[in-house]
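hey m, so remember when u said the C-alpha cells were messed up on ur end? i reran from scratch. heres the input so u can diff it against urs
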Amino acid sequence: MKCLISGIPGTGKTSVGVYLHAEKKYTHIDLEDAEVMRNFSQSPEAFIMRLTGMSDVVVTGGFKDTPWAYAMVTLFVRSGFTFIWFDGNRPAARKAFVQRNTAHVRLFDEKIFEVDAAHEKIVACNPRYFNTFDHDGNFTTLERIVSELES
C-alpha cells in the first residue's frame, strides 16, 4: 500500500506512520520533518518517483491550503498513492494537540479555520476520510486504524 495521510492536527497522522514503520515495515516519510521537506521541495517529482519503486510507503504531513500543496497531492495520487484525510472529533483532536505540547493551541484553532475554509478544495482531492476517534472521544487503536487503511 502507498498512502499520503493528511488532516487536521491532533488526529494521529504521524503516530500511524510510525506504527506502520515499526509494526508493518512500511517506509515512513514525515513531511513535517524539516530535512525531509527540504529534500522533497527541491524536486517533488524525483522524490515521489523514488517512493513509487517501494512496496509499502506511508507519507504523513499536515495540511497546507496552497496551490503547491494541492499540486503535490495530485502528484502523489497520479503516482499511485491513496490520499487519506484524518478528521473526526475536533474537541478530542484539540485536546490531543494540547497534550502533545509542541505548539500553542492557537495554532490548532487557526488550522481548523483554514481547513474549514478550504473544505471544497479538500473534497475535490477525493480523499478517503477517517475519523480516528471513537464515540467517547478517545483515539481509535492504531491496529484498528491500520486495519481499516489496509482494507
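this time it looks ok to me. The mean pLDDT is 93. if urs says something different then somethings off w ur setup not the seq
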